[in-house]
Amino acid sequence: RTKDKTSILEDVDFELELIHQDVINVKYILELLAQLYDADEDEEPKIRKLFLDTVAGEVEYRNKRELIEKFIANNLPKLDSSAEIPDNCEEFWEQERATAFEKLCKEEQLNQDKTKKVIDRYVYTGEPPLVDPDIVDLIERPLKIAERGPTKIRVFEKIKDYVETFIYGMAA
After folding, report:
1. How far is CA 14 from the centre of its chain?
2. How high is the mean pLDDT of the chain?
3. How far is CA 18 from CA 12, 46, 80, 95, 169, in A?
């Protein structure tokens, strides 16, 4: 009889652990957005807070929070039904990703084709690009000796941020 009690307690502990983990993925985010869209006026602030707290609590989504808030503010009110959320969200994300890519290349004067290849390789292999030669090869403007180190590091960090924000964790 003691063995049965121990077994049941272990099962309960395991299930509680699973519940506690709150695995968040894109599907879950889309479900929360649908709940937010369908919420009554008095429920909406509570669901919005739960949603944003959930996103902020997950390390992988912290850098995406600003974009998610922008989607909620600008796109959610324009939709006719919650069924439109997945396609609209994907379209929004692609537009934001393309804008961020162009901005990155323009601000840092990077070759767009080479930058895309470096990012694609980074995503495919999971290995960040090497500061030298990968990042150096992207920069189209001539760098003074004193600029080389800080510029390489800055571009490297911006590419990592771009990938973490727009690509990692966004596959449904």
Report:
1. 29
2. 82
3. 10, 24, 35, 35, 20
DSSP run (H or E) holding 144: none
Q: What is the pLDDT of residues 110-162, one digit of tens each?
A: 999 999 999 999 999 989 998 888 898 999 999 898 988 999 999 999 999 99
Structure token pair of residue 161: 């941020």
Which residues fall within 8 angstroms of residue 100, CB to CB, at 6 or more apart? 162, 165, 166
At 34 the three-state DSSP class reads helix
Specify whether the CB–CB gap between 97 and 164 falls below 8 A.
no
Closest residue by Cα to residue 120 from 169, 172, 167, 161? 167
What pLDDT score was predicted for residue 162? 94
- For residue 105 the two structure tokens come to 């290349």
Q: Bigger pLDDT: 12 or 38?
A: 38
Question: What pLDDT sits at residue 10?
Answer: 52
Alpha-helical runs (H) found in 22-111: 26-38, 44-57, 59-62, 65-74, 85-108
Sign of CA dihedral 123, 124, 128, 134: negative
